[in-house]
Amino acid sequence: MPVPLFNLAPNLTVSRLCLGTMTFGEQNSLPQSFGLLDEAFNGGINFFDSAEMYPVPQRAETQGRSEEYLGRWIKLRKIPRDRIVLATKVAGPSGQMTWIRGGPKCLDCRNITNAIDSSLKRMQVDYIDLYQIHWPDRYVPMFGETEYDPTRQFCSVGIEEQLDALSRAVAAGKIRYIGVSNETPYGVMKFIQVADRIAHYPKIVSVQNSYNLLCRTFDAGIAECCHHEGYVVFLLSMYARLFCHVGEGVVPRISIPPPWPVTKFPLNANQLHHVRISLLAYSPLAMGILSGKYFAADGGPVDARLNVFKGRYSEGESRYNLSNNIIKAAALEYHAIAIKYSLHPVSLAIVDKFGILLLPNQICISFVLRHPLVASAIFGATKSWQLQEVLKACMIELTPEIIAEINNIHARFPDPCP
């Protein structure tokens, strides 16, 4: 069964599964990365996500390899550029990654522009389909933190300058659309507000935040922003263009070569279409915790990420803390659902309404994809069998009974991995 598609933005159709590449160049060698990319592409995935800081854990010696491997695959396999959707990210301020533009120190125009140019060079492409701010320039609670501390705020680059730099990249043809990542409701609304005020600034089309059975914080605030806010597509002839209100007319919100068609209101209702901001859900398996592998008597495979990089991957370990009893209890509760509906105790398979055997990983992916605001689930895989298991999740539709039990666990263990 082919991977379903989703219209993320005008002329930007993505597969509902997105292969994340942050293991490429660290856990996965170049040949292994090529094998996974081949399988994903041949399996119907056209959406690939990277970042300038990848792979993780981040090191000066490996920085940029994930983008480089992705670009070498595109070139070597002679993949037509319009057959794939490339997403990557600019790193926000960090006092640790001094090898990336000295920190990086901030998300000002110079840093964003240099990051875009470097990513294009590493991936050997002319443009990036979706360019994202990896995390905010300002202080926000992230990676396991839940409370905002006003005393930790510092001088930060304004969103106006960030959008100005991104608008220049759009105008230059370097990027097509923009998105944010690890954002808050406040941040999402500020990006929308600034883009509404300045006509030629691009509007975000996506939010890439964590979303899984152990982290549903998206639903508490950002979901409402994404549902009600968005942008208007003016349907003209046989194609769509993106527009916004300016005075009495309609002009492009993204850079479209002039002349611009200007239409006086009122417009026919079927000429305007509201497009919501979509969630790109990363860590649908909670960094492998929901697979159950870390709860084995031996602590799981020695080559599993949280075992290989124990003590070296602070961002992951702070959120997915294996010594946290609440996280463990919640994860085991979700596995109890698998046991209750089990048809094969070895695989802990459960059955959906079509009689299809479900593995724990597939339950997790299916749960994420059923969310009406999720465009795509961004997953990682270091082995072929992991990739194949996720691909099969596209044919899964969880029953109301299973969803009810999932929600019951969530009510007792709300978001242990925020």
TrEMBL record:
Picking any one GO molecular function of the record gives:
oxidoreductase activity
Q: Which domain of life does this protein belong to?
A: Eukaryota
SUPFAM superfamilies found in the cross-reference section: NAD(P)-linked oxidoreductase
**Entry-linked InterPro entries:** AKR, NAD(P)_OxRdtase_dom_sf, NADP_OxRdtase_dom
All residue ranges annotated as the NADP-dependent oxidoreductase domain in the record: 16-232, 360-409
| Entries under CDD domains matching the protein | AKR_Tas-like
- The regions listed as transmembrane in this protein's record are none
State what protein this is by name. NADP-dependent oxidoreductase domain-containing protein
Q: Which organism is it from?
A: Salix brachista
